[in-house]
Amino acid sequence: VCCKKISKYISLSSTIMSTAVVDHEISDSDKISPCHDAYFAPDPKKYCDLQALSYSPMVAVLPDYCNTLFDCACLFGNTSLACMYGWDFARSCEYWAADKPLTDEEREKTLLGRRIHIIGLDGSPKAVEYSKRMNIIDQGIVQNFEHEMSAETGAGLEKADTWVMQQCLSYMPLDHLHTWMKAFLKDRSRPKRFIYDFNPYFDTTRDMTPQALLKDVPGWKLAFEKFYAYRQKTEEEYEVSKVNDRGMCVHHYVVDFEPL
């Protein structure tokens, strides 16, 4: 998430804005991200401007058994497109510029060789509507991270084989995350995968490692982890912290849950 002022989100009780937590219009003075308008636009044209910051999030890898993907903070479908086809952000921008929905035939031609049922969740109704119209996601859910988990969200998590949260975990209160995790793991008769990023620049006080988040959950293993720069810092962000130089770095985790 672009250009947040560190003083404004010392804790999650402060006023934090992202597509995952804001479901109403706010004044310009309250916008703590210059990219806010891009997140709430009806299409991804402004979002593509992040290419100027070398925006390139890790392509999440789906397990072979994945039939249903829960894309949390799906926005305009970038993560879902990456999961289906291995596309980087630049390729997604090319697809968005063409403004042609995916055909059902294209939805079948994923890296897994079959159509994946995708449930996309976001706090922006316009983004969810766009991803549905472009045939990227099959089901859209509008959900604010700071609100109680809706029945639709809980049902989607329970149904999913894979849950992905990239560039958004810092906006979810821990008690809500644990509630969502319980819904995701309600059915332990089959394997599941949780893919997420943790950004220490924005989330400065919480221990968001798998070991901390899943300390009371049995039957899981860390399948992959990487610390990398998913984009460059803005000048404002660089002045706040020069740790990792110009890179805006995140911890990328892939956690696998075995059947119980």
What does this entry look like structurally?
The protein has helices spanning 36-39, 78-85, 89-98, 104-108, 125-133, 151-159, 174-184, 210-213, 235-240; strands at 68-72, 117-122, 139-142, 162-165, 192-198, 220-232, 247-257. The protein has a seven-stranded mixed sheet, sandwiched between helices. It is globular, with a radius of gyration of 17 Å. The protein has 260 residues and is α/β, with parallel strands linked by helices. The protein starts with 35 loop residues before the first helix and ends with a strand. Helix 6 (151-159) packs across helix 7 (174-184). Strand 4 (162-165), helix 7 (174-184) and strand 5 (192-198) form a beta-alpha-beta unit.
| Global structural class | alpha/beta
Secondary-structure element series: HEHHHEHEHEHEHEHE
Strand content: 15-25%
Number of strands: 7
Question: How are strands sequenced across the largest beta sheet?
Answer: 3-2-1-4-5-7-6
**Average pLDDT metric:** 88
**Based on CA inertia axes, which overall geometry fits?**
globular
Major β-sheet profile: 7 strands, mixed
> Termini distance?
36 Å
Put simply, the count of helices is 9
Summarize the amount of helix as a percent range.
25-40%
Rg estimate, integer Å: 17 Å
Layout of helices and strands, plus pairs?
Blueprint: H1 36-39, E1 68-72, H2 78-85, H3 89-98, H4 104-108, E2 117-122, H5 125-133, E3 139-142, H6 151-159, E4 162-165, H7 174-184, E5 192-198, H8 210-213, E6 220-232, H9 235-240, E7 247-257
Parallel strand pairs: 1-2, 1-4, 2-3, 4-5
Antiparallel strand pairs: 5-7, 6-7
Helix pairs in contact: 6-7
